[in-house]
Amino acid sequence: MKLLITDIENFDIPQGDDYKLIKANGDIRNCIGCFGCWVKTPGKCVINDGFDRTGIDLGKCTELILVSRCCYGSTSPAVKMIQDRAISYIHPDFVIRNGEMHHKRRYDNVITVSAYFYGDDITEAEKETAGNLIQSIVDNYDGKLGNVAFYKSAEELKAEVTL
Q: What is the pLDDT of residue 24?
């Protein structure tokens, strides 16, 4: 399954066994840093707002696709909130990978992480920061790097990106 997280309200993909779409909306609550998803209900967030199974969804996917407005070289605040709520995808214990300390994987799947950013004034510095951010996510998830691309608008992105 490919898991797509987006802040574009009218971004639609065929859902079913191949894709799951998570759209950022006003219903999501902030991660409160309680560690419940790590120790109390492993893999599942204790906040029941419809985004509580995002970590479990990551554990079932082969590709994570972030579609977001580029905000200072990062995802939008709404997409970041969903990413924060998926912290349970990784285990609280640590391992050394490539000479760096990272969290262990909780699940056996290896995720390919792709990101499609949009914004009419994305600078080269922001593109570099975004690329580094996505690589950091790949490193933390012990995954693989997919596509990282930039578009001038959400409309251009929707017209050009085929998933």
A: 86
